[in-house]
Each structure stands twice: as structure tokens, then as C-alpha cells.
Amino acid sequence: MHIVIYGLGGVGGYFGGKLAKAGNNVTFIARGAHLKAVQEYGLQVKSIDGDFTIQPTLATDTISDVPKADLVILSVKSWQIPEIAEQLKPILHSDSAVLPLQNGADNVEKLVEVLPEHQVLGGFCKIYSKKETDGVIDHFGVSPAEVVLGELNNKKTERVAAIARLFNEAGCLGTVAEDIQKRIWSKFIFITTVSAIGGLTRVSIGAMRDVPYLYDVLKNTALEIKAIANAKGINLTDDDMGALFNFIDKQPYEATASTQRDIMAGHPSELENFNGYIVKEGKRLGIPTPVNEFIYYCLVPQEKIARTS
pTM to 2 decimals? Predict the structure, then answer.
């Protein structure tokens, strides 16, 4: 199986590195100094599960150099998906599978607007990781890291079982979801909630938990997102919300979300795809989202600066 990792940040670098270390044929599509470092020195992964370095089969910024792919793992930002989906067309064959692992609730929707639906899987991951420096990935939380995936119709096909086995054999967890859209939205609520308040307060999840007022804001943010999900036919329940906050309560005190780190660093972030998406869907569906609106519009000015600087 030829696996293509599009995007060499914390997610793509870690999971792609683990797949390559396990002996799979892995191509990385990346750019800039990060790509050059990988080409020259290999991809270095610092991990709580043990450090390693791999030499990818191919690392390039030119998609025309890439052979046909059996599996493409997308670890770019959500807003980049439409453009990248177009770029993927020449390297896909009729049985290729495209697996998006980035955060967001509408990644599948964006992909199927460009690619045939049968080529698209639903997916997300559970990991704390980041690009430390050019050529180096730091995996600093969640062990073992997990990839959750599924067919869009939730059928338990051999291809999703085979992809899950790839991750398991590489030392990660590969899980086929019973209801992939519900699982995606469960992750989306978590990451959107902690990223938003984290972006405003600029403190860790633990520090937010310590302030009862902020903890209530976290809950109200999540409840608005649940209302949008339910209106879209996603079966999130009160029990799911309880599980969500049990999960938040168990996160490492110093943990921060990747979108929060982007906001704090003045980089373009997933704000539009997170709280912005909820605000937009709330207006479309006639559902009030005042907490998400406040967070979104407080952060919009900085996001505009980040995207024009």
C-alpha cells in the first residue's frame, strides 16, 4: 500500500512517521525549510513513547512527483481542504481512500464537493503533538495516539478494517467507529470549546478548569455546539456531554489545543472552521449561539491580522 501524508505538522509527522517506521511505503508532501530538513536528515520524532528517526520513501513539495496513492492522509488545516482536494485528483485511482485527520466538523463535506464520495472516509485523531522545529516533531501527550475512522455510511468494510490495522501494527490505536459523524462531532465540541476559551485567556486547560466562571463558559460553549449538532441530525446526548467534560477534567493541567497555540503565536488559525462555523450554522438554522458569537468576534480582529501579515 502506498500511503501519502499531505501536511507534515504534528499530526501528519507523527502518524506518518510511525507508519514509515513500521515499514510502510510512505510519501510526505510538505514545503519550505521543514521539507528540506526532512530530505537531508530524515524525519525526527520526539515522543513520550520513544524517539525515532525515519527516512521517507519520498518527501516532496511537487505533487506531480508522487505515484498513485492507495491511502491519502490529510493533516493540513481545514480551510485548505478544497484546494488540496483538487490537487489530489491526479494521484488518486478508483479505489483510493482519502482520510482527513484535521479538526473540524465539515471536512468530509468539503471533500465530497470535489472528490467522489466513495473515495472519502471520515476520521480524526487523538494526540498532542506539534512541529518543534524544521524536521522535528514533538509528540507530548496521549499514549498511545489514536486514529478513529469510518465509512461515511458507517458500513464496516474491509478497507477501513485494513487501515485500522495499519495504525495498530505501527504502534498506534486504529479504531473503526460505530458512528463516525457522531465521533467527529464529539471531538469537534471538545477542541472548539477548549481552543476558543484558550485563545481568549491564553492559559492551559488546567488553568481554565481552576476558575468556576470559565468552566461554566466552557460548558455553555459546548451546549450551543450540541444544539447545532442535534439540529443537523447528529445524535449527541446529555450523556455524551457528561463524557466530554469528564475527558476535559482528565486532560493534563498544562495542555493546550493546537488552534489556541496558533492564535497565541499570531498564526492563521481554525477560528472560522470552529466557532465561526457554529455561528454561521446557528444563523442558518435559527439557533442562538451567543457564547460562540462573543468568542468568535473577540478573536476575529487578530485572525484578520494573522491572515494578512
Answer: 0.89
